[in-house]
Amino acid sequence: MKRLLLSLCFFIFITIYSKAQGLHSIKGRTIDTASTALLSGASIAILNAKDSTLVKFTRAAENGTFELTGIKNGKFILLVSYPKYADFVDHFTLDSTTHVKDFGNINLTGMAKILADVIIKGEKAAIKIKGDTTEFNASSYNIQPNDKVEDLLKKLPGIQVDKDGKITAQGKTVPKVLVDGEEFFGDDPTLVTKNLRADMVDKVQLYEKSSDQAAFTGVDDGQKTQTINIKLKEDKKSGYFGKVDAGYGTHDFYKGQVLFNRFKAKQKFSVYGTAGNNGTTGLSWQDNNKLGAGNDNMQMGDDGSIWFSYGGGDELESGNYYGEGIPRAITGGAHYDNKWNNDKETINTNYKLGALGIKTTKNTISQNNLPDGIINTNTNETSDRNVFRQKLDATYTVKLDTTSNLKVSVDGMLKNSDNTSNSKSEGLRGDNSKLNSNDQNNSNDGKEQNFNISALYTKKLKKPGRNYSVNISQKVSQITSEGFLYSDVKYFDEAGVKKGGAVTDQFKTNTTRNAVLSTNLTYNEPLSKSLALVLNYGFGLNDSRSDRKSFNQSTPGNYNVLDKEFSNDFKATQYINQGGAVFNYKTTKTTISLGSKLSAVNFDQLEQLSGQRYKRSFVNWLPQASYQYKFSAQKSFRIGYNGNTNQPTNGRPVAACKSK
């Protein structure tokens, strides 16, 4: 047994030793060429020579020295950067003959000196690490004359773009793509990536964008958005450009696209239009934002906030398209943004419209194997669904003085939809005798209107780090729909003789209204260089109504008999007071946040058909804590906890909420 343990220990030692022998370390020192001064804090990056992906990263110590360990065999690029100095770039190889690669003194030359007589060793860096931002130099990657930004992004290490245009960077979805730091057509990144030419791009920046509140206070609220910023070349910021694409195929398939852009200094104006029936237009991953989505319920948030939403529940309205039918899609829009008054004032506006129609013919054959026998069902269904949506948004930002800013955002949306479907199904027993049949017709016409306005005022006080902000928002929405439901269900015995059935012939109406007022006051007090206290208070008022009615016929074609079993009319009002305190500790590598919020909610709901009333008052305790440690600019560890409470959804336990 001892011999076996000794052999095992010897084997583990040899394995670890062999592995260690296959790893290398790199060291050196950064100095100024002219003055021989030591350059502390210089950025040191090791890149793969093959694709320029980042392998290791560090910064030079106070004495200018650096050392990177644990690097495997291979071909690499050393990239050394320092503000106002030319980059140092060198290619090198690590193999079994070299355990330690010592670059000795690395001389960096000031940019002013380069213009005179200095020749720099190396080439233009493909990647730069600037704090938390990774910057890609577009000219370092090969692109074709007609490539779009999407084609350029596919070549960048760590960034993936799928067939629908969805972007993933460093394992996180990228929902926002900016152009020179400004939004371009709002919440649709594909309008940038699929339409702007790649040869217009100077640099691509990748970073996590903080919320407006966090960016102002410097306190991480956990709301970060993976963001790509496209920086244009200076000579591409003025002028006109555009494109026209068109295609036609067999069986009358077609697609077309028109885009026009006018850039002049700090002004950008763009219009576009697309049309197609080949399934590639208007059916990408962000369609639920473009054309609207929702489901048929009343929901309650963690802080007691409540809202109504309604939708058809089909694959179009839920934002999911499963490839059924041939879509006919038309989209278009216009964008304008500008800066003036020494960049103190900015405006960003977008208008978008979209129309989508799908006709389907479907046959479904299914088999259910039950303990008492087999049921074979054959269903034939046809449907015609159409949606037309318009959306307008504008954001105005003004820098009132050196210490205060005001941001006002307005957006609205109008959507009309109509859906019809017809289905016939037949169920057979295992011996092919008829079990049941169902003929069903549905039609529904809907209209949705949304309007939102918000204002954020931020103010910095005399003491560094001391500031406050006020946020006010108002949201108003209304969704109406009406339609007919006809269903004829029949049941048969083993001899095929009808033994029962049910006919449903109803006219249904749905109206939901929601008005939400939200206010929030945040005060940030620095307690020390690393510790800050954030206090906040918010008041909310929510007035909602959901009126759903079903009517039966009194005479043919006259639907005026209310079916109370499948009707309800909820009216709800809420008053929300929420306050909290959060301590935030932040150093170069460590960020700790600890605090809690208390939300007091007074809830009053009335079901007007039955006269039932529900009054509730409750307090939600919402603790929060997070810890983050940054090993480097590209590597960090974060763990967080956010307490939440789920209130019972209004109307779920009430029988009148049944839907048929």
Automatic annotation (TrEMBL):
Residue ranges of every copy of the Outer membrane protein beta-barrel domain listed in the record: 460-648
Biased composition (Polar residues): 416-425, 433-451
The entry's keywords: Carboxypeptidase, Hydrolase, Protease
Coiled coil: none
Pfam family, one: OMP_b-brl_3
GO MF terms, alphabetically ordered: carboxypeptidase activity
Chain positions covered by the region annotation Disordered: 412-451
Identification of the protein by name: Carboxypeptidase regulatory-like domain-containing protein
Species of origin: Pedobacter suwonensis
Top-level taxonomy: Bacteria, Pseudomonadati, Bacteroidota, Sphingobacteriia, Sphingobacteriales
